[in-house]
Amino acid sequence: MGKVRRGGYIFTWQLEDHLSIHLHVYRGNKLVCRWMLFEGKELSGKASTKVIKIIDELKKEGAFKELEKLK
Q1: By residue range, what is the domain housing residue 48?
Q2: Which of the residue ranges 14-23, 27-36, 42-51 would you say has the lowest mean pLDDT?
Q3: By CB neighbour count within 10 A (0-12 exposed, 13-18 middle, 19+ buried), where does 46 fall?
Q4: Is the dihedral of CA 57, 59, 62, 66 positive or negative?
């Protein structure tokens, strides 16, 4: 399991998740959305432009390298 806190959000993922490779995005204890990392769209919920921008920054920083290997 991976976990990153950024911009007031918590981004989590599991390597063994059964669905398409995705992130769970939380604000506090509330699930905001599930984001399909390589498709670039929501699996559920609604991602704000701020959330999408943070995900793009994390990708550039290499935060999801372990997930890219599963692609």
Answers
A1: 2-68
A2: 14-23
A3: exposed
A4: positive
* Tally of structural domains, the chain: 1
pTM over 0.85: yes
Q: Which residues contact 16 (CB under 8 A, 6 or more apart)?
A: none
46 close to 32: Cβ distance less than 8 angstroms: yes
Which residues on adjacent β-strands are paired with residue 51?
A: none
Find all residues with CB under 8 Å of 17, minimum gap 6, and list them: none
Helices (DSSP H) in 1-71: which residue ranges?
A: 49-61, 65-68
Which residues contact residue 48 at a Cβ distance below 8 angstroms, ignoring those fewer than 6 apart?
Answer: 32
